[in-house]
Specification:
By secondary structure, this protein is mainly β. Helices cover about 5% and strands about 40% of the residues. The relative contact order is 0.29.
Length: about 230
């Protein structure tokens, strides 16, 4: 073929990439996503593969959640070989919220949990044992417990179920039904201004133990991972 006077057309390669979420497979982060648990089950959960730590003498755990359940259920479960409830955020009733640290149970009367997403933060530090719960940037009464205690490492973080053993022992009647998003955990107590700021919208930065935007996760059972269209950022 005579190509004199003709410009050769460039060769273009088109690569099609398809991403598929599979139960049990590793995925990285859920920035702009929500996890929805549509029904009571004993086998639906999300496991957060958090950053390793040996022990904690303070923490802040924040999340957004909504549920219309009237029974008790787990919002955030961390279990170790020492305690199945090493760190548990528990909704005892629509108005009673409970933090469990090992064998300790600290209850707070809070505004009624309902179908509207609310931002919840819990802070604790070992030196004075001070515990505070924040709902949509508003602080609860401070309580004191767990002075001198530590939260041990090498455990597992689970959303959607309460662990009776590390990574298992689930009870259908303690399962979460509703929506959870923006889960973060720090190894220190956030200042009140920081908590108020992060409660006002989706975070631009995350916790150094759990960061909703980058922490790897796996899931099993009936779990829907959806766009969080209410995220303002």
């Amino acid at each position: 073929m005579d190509t004199v006077g003709h410009r050769m057309k460039p060769f273009v390669t088109i690569v099609l990439v398809i991403c598929i979420y599979l139960p049990g497979s590793d995925s990285i982060g859920m920035y702009g996503k929500s996890v929805r648990f549509p029904a009571k089950t004993a086998n639906s959960f999300v496991r957060l593969h958090a950053a390793d730590f040996s022990s904690l003498t303070a923490f802040t755990v924040c999340l957004r959640a909504a549920s219309e359940e009237t029974r008790s259920y787990s919002l955030f479960s961390y279990a170790t070989d020492f305690h199945a409830n090493e760190l548990l955020l528990w909704q005892e009733s629509k108005t009673q919220f409970q933090l469990e640290l090992g064998t300790l149970q600290i209850a707070f009367n809070l505004p009624e949990m309902n179908g509207l997403l609310r931002h919840i933060c819990v802070t604790w530090e070992s030196q004075e044992g001070e515990i505070t719960v924040w709902v949509n940037g508003r602080r609860s009464v401070r309580k004191v417990d767990g002075k001198g205690q530590v939260v041990k490492g090498l455990g597992q973080f689970i959303l959607g179920q309460e662990q009776d053993s590390v990574g298992g022992g689930f009870d259908i009647n303690q399962s979460f039904v509703g929506e959870i998003t923006d889960v973060h955990m720090w190894d220190h107590v956030l200042q009140s201004n920081d908590i108020k700021t992060v409660s006002q919208g989706c975070l631009r930065y995350g916790g150094n133990i759990i960061d909703w935007g980058s922490t790897p996760y796996t899931f099993e059972g009936i779990v829907a991972i959806e766009d969080n269209k209410d995220c303002p950022l």
